[in-house]
């Protein structure tokens, strides 16, 4: 816990324990893990992703990209299990303790990595994701381990969450004609503020190696300001 701001930040003073992570998740719905991942692993995953996306771009330009990759590619993303490092998927390399133990305890069973785990690049603009709850989209309780591979929150889009111990699912009011599920299932800021209060909203800054862990019920969105001009690449690793 960051004693100055009362925000749930772990890892600044001592290694993150499973008990502290579970306690933060129960009390706030989210916890920022500062400097949790080895920056060289993060840099390596970023390089693999950029190389794979450049290959897909060439295939796309030649009209040869397999149809199953079209939706992800045009959204600037790839499934996380398609990025490998030394014979392991990026998801396997990132699921280090105490993440697995905390997910097992929060979910009440042995948690596994969901196929719905992505690496993506988001620029300020139409790629931004509106307020939503993952549990409404995935239809399962989960923990999201969200980690940027590039700095974000100041010049590049960050992430905003509503901190609360509550786990209720809120009403969604997105445009039903949208072809993006996350837009159809979006939640208004007004409802979030009415339900949890304005002070619940939190948008930390991040450096590569930091992560934000949050529950499937935690309301979140891409955090963007008019001052932001840079893209950001990040991973959403879901344990279900
Ligand atoms: O990366 C973002 O800006 C949004 C991520 C998100 O909404 C998610 O991981 O569910």
Report the span from N to C terminus. 25 Å
Shape: globular
User: How does the major sheet shape up?
Assistant: 7 strands, mixed
Name the average pLDDT.
Answer: 95
Strand adjacency order, main sheet: 1-2-10-7-12-6-3
Q: Would you count the extended β strands for me?
A: 12
Helix content: 25-40%
Rg over CA atoms: 17 Å
CATH class: Mainly Beta
State the secondary-structure class: alpha+beta
CATH topology, what is it called? Jelly Rolls
Q: What's the tally of helices?
A: 8
CATH architecture: Sandwich
Structure explained in plain terms:
- With 240 residues, the protein is of the alpha+beta class.
- The protein has a single domain, classed as Jelly Rolls, CATH 2.60.120.
- It has eight helices and twelve strands.
- The strands form three sheets. A seven-stranded mixed sheet has the order 1-2-10-7-12-6-3. A three-stranded antiparallel sheet has the order 9-8-11, covered by helices on one side. Strands 4-5 form a two-stranded antiparallel sheet.
- Helix 1 crosses helix 5.
- The chain is globular, with a radius of gyration of 17 Å.
- The structure holds 2-oxoglutaric acid (AKG).
- 2-oxoglutaric acid binds next to strand 7, strand 11 and strand 12.
